[in-house]
């Protein structure tokens, strides 16, 4: 039986929100290793520290929801203030995390420059990261457009909201680690910071392994920004990270992404055009090559068969001549 998310504000919605946060907290006891096949910034943290960071993000999200409800923020105000809400959340998560780890957070500055591929990806997907989630948690499913997801707003599965919350928690955690690493800048500063504060995953305790990790993230972010993300947008797909028994896993949900499509850069649109050409040309080429291969095989088999028969006849004639 499918349980649906509350349609509008009220006590029932408040109870569901409280239950959802409690349910997500219980999942932290599971394995938090990365099984998404992608590099995540949180990979650099040990499992216990990752658990602490996820808990902090969830607490800050809960406080954010309570504050917005208490302030009686309207949907229009939420949409206007969305960028500020997003950056404030990241700032609070970073500060809270560093305080919990007994680290001075005064030198950490939020990076907003769009020169970072990771930030460009995140900002383009903000609507799916936080805006829709806050709408569900504060107002219910009433204000979610019917065409955005693969179901009617009145029949939004609770599991769907749970997926969005888990994904936001993991992505905000990644952003927090990204901000910290970019503030530290040099590899020597990063590894000193991680080892001194006992935050580091054992896989990244050397400068070489850390350099490899950052390089892999850099190229992954570029690939995602210019190839993978445009493809997802074009296909109306959104990738989410979730907590499972196997650790962190990646899944895909349907999301109508016309607004994201409009915001794509010229280069990203070129990539989409190439994808479209690929979808059109490759099947045609495959059919042509298949026919060509069959034709070549047919000719080859016939020539080879006739050649063998001709060769056998020559041998037989030669034997007959020798006998005469």
Descriptive terms for the model:
324 residues; mainly alpha; 2 domains; two-stranded antiparallel ribbon; 11 helices; 2 strands; Ycf55; chloroplast; Uncharacterised_Ycf55_algae; transmembrane
Notes on the structure:
It comes from Gracilaria caudata. InterPro entries: Uncharacterised_Ycf55_algae (IPR017077), UPF_Ycf55 (IPR022552). This is Ycf55. The chain has two domains: 254 residues, no CATH class; 59 residues. The protein is 66% helix and 5% strand. The chain is built from eleven helices and two strands, in the order αααααααααββαα. The protein has a two-stranded antiparallel ribbon with strand order 1-2. Strand 1 and strand 2 form a beta hairpin. Helix 2 packs across helix 4. The radius of gyration is 28 Å and the shape is elongated. The N and C termini lie far apart (92 Å). The model has no long low-confidence stretch (mean pLDDT 84).
Topology of helices and strands:
Blueprint: H1 11-26, H2 47-70, H3 75-80, H4 82-100, H5 117-124, H6 126-139, H7 158-184, H8 187-196, H9 207-234, E1 237-244, E2 247-254, H10 258-262, H11 266-323
Antiparallel strand pairs: 1-2
Helix pairs in contact: 2-4, 2-7, 4-7, 5-9, 6-7, 9-11
